[in-house]
Amino acid sequence: MIESIAIVRLQADSPHVGTVAGWVHDAWGHLHPETPAVAYRREFYAQCGEGGVPSVFVAMHEASPVGTASLVADDMSIRRELTPWLASVFVPPEWRGYGIASRLVQRVEAEALAHGIRHFHLYTPDQQALYRRLGWEDREALTYRGESVTIMSRRLDASTA
Question: Under the phi-then-psi rule, with left for phi > 0, alpha for psi from -120 to 50, and beta for the rest, what region is 97?
Answer without folding.
Answer: left
